[in-house]
Structure formats: structure tokens, C-alpha cells
What we know:
Layout: E1 80-85, H1 95-99, E2 101-105, E3 108-111, H2 125-142, E4 146-149, H3 161-170, E5 175-182, E6 193-197, H4 207-222, E7 236-239, H5 243-246, E8 252-259, H6 263-270, H7 272-290
Amino acid sequence: MATLATACLLLSGCSRPTAAGQPQPASAGATSSSAPSSATSPAPSSPAAGSPAPSNPAPSSPAAPGTSAPKQLAAKPGQVVVLDPGHNGGNAANPTAINRQVPAGRGQTKECDTTGTATNAGYSEHAFTWDVSLRVRTALTAKGYQVVLTRQDDTSVGPCVDERAGIGNRANAAAVVSIHADGSLTSGAHGFHVAYPNPPVNAAQGAPTTRLANTLRDAMVAAGFPTANYIGSNGLDGRADLAGLNLSEQPKVLVECGNMRDSAEASTLSSAEGRQRYADAIASAIASYLG
């Protein structure tokens, strides 16, 4: 999820060297397919004794001028799912808005948002994440889940990464999945990975998020998607630098569905059939997690 000019983002799921001692994942699961819509390692362990208790996140920054205003639905514990389509179509034209610093958790600040990456042919990450999120929403609403999106279109700016976390927190979401695609320029880099907050800073980031990360990884593997060969371990990557994960008080993970700069994966990411496969795997994982 690099900017169009760079290969790696600091904010929302950019690639970085694999950390030593990455935990080993659990076994894989399954998925299914459906029609499109119109509109770690043994799982990372739950928090060790003495881990901080849930704390109040840093205040969400107000939406930047021109940012989309997500609709908020009444929370029903165990039934609300928040989908967070990475980036937005208006970001590139509004550098002042997206470059301002916002709280990022763990004492950090980060840029409000980034533009995201694109395939070499020009298909943008923000368009991919929006399309897949709509498909996942269609599948989950058909199963009776209440779905909240962190943005309402693919033409606005933001919302900022701290506000994306805030939306999931205010909805009391049972699961939050941030959907992205990576932009690594490393030769041969391909495959998906699921980022999770590590070390956890509250109870929700411990065992519940660990289980969500493993369930999503297993569903992606079962759907035939290879795990990343350039980051993380067996499709899982613990992170302490992603604001949307750091600030979440609900179980939340971020999936980089593939590398948009890899020609083979770019073909899958760019096709409607490929995007439906990703959506089916993500929807299947969320439904399995919520049980």
C-alpha cells in the first residue's frame, strides 16, 4: 500500500522487514463464492500477565475538510461488523488534508491518510479496497450481519486513520477488518498477509484479535491465495506501527490481499472475478469468526 510514488506506506500496512522471532501460524480453514454487488504461526499468544488493561484511545481527530462522513448504525454486540476500505479516491488531490498529523497510538503520530498504491497498469488500491468491501458487505448482510463502512464512497478524502479506528470502537464492533493491497517493489514479492497489533495494548487486541487474524489467514489460504514471501511469517505479521490497529478497542486486523506490483497478482487484483474471490474469503472468515 505504497503511495503512487513510493512502494511502502508508514500508515496502513506497508511492507517492512520481517521481525525476528515471528510466531508460527495455525492451520488453514475454508471459503466459498458468491455474486458481486452493485451499489500467528501458532496464533500469537494473548496478552501476557501484566499487559496493560484496556485504556481510552487518543481522541479521534476531526475529519479533514472534504472527508467522507461514515454513517453510524446502532451497535448490536456480536452482530456488527466494520469494514475499513483502505485510502480514498480524493486523497491524492488533497495533500494538505491527508498529510496532517493525527494520533496513532503507542505515543505516536502519523499522517491522516495516504494515497495508496496501484498496479503498474494504473489500477488503484483505493478502487480495489472499495470494490472488495462492497462485495464483502453484500455477503455479510445476506447472512444477517449489520455492516458499517468507514467510508461511504470512493471519491472523498479520508477519513483519517484515527477516525477509522474510532468508527469501529463507537459501533462496538464484534469484528473490524481493514482491507488493503500492498505495493512492494521487491523483485518476486507476492502473496497476502494479515497484520495484527503486537504487542496488544488492551484485552480486545489480545486473544480475540489473535483468533480473528488466524481465521482470516486460514480462509485466504483455503481460497487458494499464497501467503506473502517477503513479509511476516506464514501469512501473519505482528505490528506496532499501524494507527488503525493501535487505537482499536475491538478485535481488528488489516489484510494486505496481495502485491499490486507483482504482475501475476495484479491480474487477480484487477479482475472482477479475482476481487470476488478475495471478498468471498474475507466474508467467510468473518462469519466463521463470529460463529
